[in-house]
Amino acid sequence: MAVETEIKLRVDHGELEQLRGRMDELNAEVKAPRQEEKNRLFDFADGRLRSGGSTLRLRSYGGDSILTFKGPVLEDPRFKRRAEFQTRVEDAGALEQVLESLGLAPAARYDKVREIRSWRLEAGTVEVCLDETPIGTFVEIEGAAPAIGEALEALGWSGRESIRRSYLELYREAGLT
């Protein structure tokens, strides 16, 4: 089972700009430049994916479309961890028709502007996502737990409070979906 391990932190916009400079100093490679990302979530009419804590997402970003299934969040006191399976999609419109033919329908949508950096550390490589949304500015750090811990330490963010909720939950709390 592939398990995604990540931490999400709320930052102010000024911190995001400072972080870009710090990432440059630390030789964090730009994996994908700042660009719009569109996310569409699918579920059955009875909402069984959402009520079971799972998500089926079709993401469009940088000319690519990716279908991702995420299982329920696993118990972890520090990081958000969950099963994750994803694949690139050649034709997002055709995939949407397949999903709808299987009884799934669009259940929610949220968009953001995202920049992705890849950062090699002693404990492993992390992916750092710099996200600008209508509900605020966030940084997600994804990778193995020791590498995330090392990244937080290097940024001086070890004691910073993390957010375990998904973007969809945050958008819903803000009344935007």
Structure description:
This protein has 177 residues and is of the alpha+beta class. Helices cover 25% and strands 50% of the residues. It is built from 5 helices and 8 strands; from the N terminus they run βαβαβββαβββαα. It has helices spanning 13-25, 48-51, 92-101, 145-155, 167-173, and strands at residues 3-11, 29-44, 55-61, 64-74, 80-89, 104-121, 124-133, 136-142. The protein has an 8-stranded antiparallel β-barrel, surrounded by 4 helices. A hairpin with a 2-residue loop joins β7 (124-133) and β8. It is globular.
Q: pLDDT under 50 segments (min length 5)?
A: none
Q: State the major sheet.
A: 8 strands, antiparallel, barrel
Mean pLDDT: 95
Order of helices and strands: EHEHEEEHEEEHH
Number of helices: 5
What is the number of strand segments?
A: 8
Strand content is: over 45%
Radius of gyration, in Å, reads 16 Å
Amount of helix: 25-40%
Report the principal-axis shape: globular
Record the strand order, biggest sheet.
1-5-4-3-2-6-7-8
End-to-end C-alpha gap: 31 Å
Described by its quaternary structure, the protein is single chain
